[in-house]
């Protein structure tokens, strides 16, 4: 199955000059969802993942499905003022200005093996901030795993030694 046929380019969204990779056609097709999930599971290739961490909001589409297939728990990383219990926060740089992500303080136990999942790796700011949150709680990141990598933005350079994998590259 050619998954790229289920990903739509939307020009100038959310702002002028950005070509947005829209995965909603993929999400609307049952066979494409199953095929994507099977490929993501194959791509993990590591045993004993304890937690899958997914970033708000598009990391929530496949993150819990992946966690279920890996027999792992799912941990949401959320935008500010969404998590109700004690949390840790990480600020990161965007193209313009900064943003913050939160994770519950008890979401990861020291020594747990963690897979970080999101739909798109662009500049890598979101993934880097998420890795920092996991590591601050003592988690060991075994892989950062994406549906789509935008190669020209060099996001993987920000992630240093962490293994980075993507199903589709543009
Ligand atoms: O590598 P980066 O440059 O950090 O960009 C990647 C992030 O951007 C998108 O999320 P967005 O912030 O648009 O939020 P959304 O998932 O709620 O749409 C995408 O889902 C990733 O989380
Ligand atoms: N071009 C893009 N398409 C979809 N999601 C993104 N997140 C950051 N850049 C993106």
From TrEMBL:
User: SUPFAM superfamilies this protein is in?
Assistant: PRTase-like
Catalytic activities: AMP + diphosphate = 5-phospho-alpha-D-ribose 1-diphosphate + adenine
Main location, first listed in the record: cytoplasm
Q: Where in the cell is it found?
A: Cytoplasm
Single GO cellular component term: cytoplasm
Identify the EC number(s). Answer: 2.4.2.7
EC primary class: transferase
Where does the secretion signal sit in this chain? none
Q: What CDD domains does the database record attribute to this sequence?
A: PRTases_typeI (cd06223)
| Entry annotated with the keyword Transferase | yes
The organism's superkingdom is given as Bacteria
**Gene Ontology process terms (BP):** adenine salvage; AMP salvage; purine ribonucleoside salvage
Pfam families linked to this entry: Pribosyltran
Role this protein plays: Catalyzes a salvage reaction resulting in the formation of AMP, that is energically less costly than de novo synthesis.
Q: What quaternary structure, including any partners, is listed in this protein's UniProt entry?
A: Homodimer.
Task: Quote the NCBIfam families the UniProt record gives.
Answer: apt, PRK02304.1-3, PRK02304.1-5
Protein family: Belongs to the purine/pyrimidine phosphoribosyltransferase family.
- PANTHER family the record matches: ADENINE PHOSPHORIBOSYLTRANSFERASE (PTHR32315:SF3)
Q: What is this protein called?
A: Adenine phosphoribosyltransferase
Please spell out the taxonomic lineage of the organism that makes this protein.
Answer: Bacteria, Pseudomonadati, Bacteroidota, Flavobacteriia, Flavobacteriales
């Amino acid at each position: 199955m050619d998954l790229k046929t289920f990903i739509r380019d939307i020009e100038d969204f959310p702002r002028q000059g950005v070509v947005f990779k829209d995965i909603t056609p993929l999400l609307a097709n049952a066979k494409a969802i199953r095929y994507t999930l099977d490929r993501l599971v194959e791509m993990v290739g590591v045993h004993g993942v304890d937690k899958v961490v997914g970033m708000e909001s598009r990391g929530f589409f496949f993150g819990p499905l992946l966690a279920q297939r890996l027999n792992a728990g799912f941990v949401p990383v959320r935008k500010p003022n969404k998590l109700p219990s004690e949390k840790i926060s990480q600020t990161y740089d965007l193209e313009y200005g900064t943003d913050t992500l939160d994770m519950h303080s008890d979401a990861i136990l020291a020594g747990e093996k963690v897979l970080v999942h999101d739909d798109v790796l662009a500049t890598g700011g979101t993934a880097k901030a998420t890795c920092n949150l996991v590591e601050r709680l003592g988690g060991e990141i075994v892989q950062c795993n994406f549906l789509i990598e935008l190669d020209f933005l060099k996001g993987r350079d920000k992630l240093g030694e962490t293994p980075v994998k993507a199903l589709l590259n543009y």
